[in-house]
Amino acid sequence: MSDHPSELAPFVPRARRLFDLDADPGAVEGHLRTDPILLPLVEARPGLRIPGAWDGFETTVRAVLGQQVSVGAATTLASRLVRLAGEPVAASGAGTHLFPTPEALVDTDLAGIGMPGARIRTIRELAAQVRDGDVVLDGSAGHEETAAALARIPGIGPWTVAYVGMRVLRDHDAFPSTDLGVRRALERLGIGRAEIPARAEAWRPWRGYAAMHLWASLG
Description:
Order of helices and strands: HHHHHHHHHHHHH
Structural class: mainly alpha
Strand content: under 5%
Number of helices: 13
Largest sheet: none
Radius of gyration: 19 Å
Shape: globular
């Protein structure tokens, strides 16, 4: 613990976002319980929250890396990216590099990490727009404005925008309706793909929490 509490003050809001400490579980669960397919999921995991992001840019890049690949493959790509473009650090633990800055990703040739060229261009464009202030991922901009800016970047589609909305922008109504896990969970509950958009409308303004319960149910 620091001897100077004032030194910790800048980290408190980030920690609150990271652990979703400003959530109102009673309000969220009271609303989601009105749908009979979500009721048993909510009862099984009361107080479930949406994990935030310590660094919005890193989380957004990782979301792009995870497009259409497995979790393991996305982790491998992230490790390669960090070793290639991240700043080395002297550490006794497992970490050897800091996550690359936007400036580093704009300037680094990423062709060797095993990603399609189109996805590399997406990461470089994202990095350039964050560097230039056209996309703001630190929570200081409105989530609708930031989501719209992300959606204009080639290669960033509805799934990525929704995921970043949940994790980075703290948009509690963001809902990745095209996510494979969400679809599988709903299929188990008897909801077909074509029914998802209409069914999810009833979960507003807490669709992000509904997605968390659906993902958790697969475990």
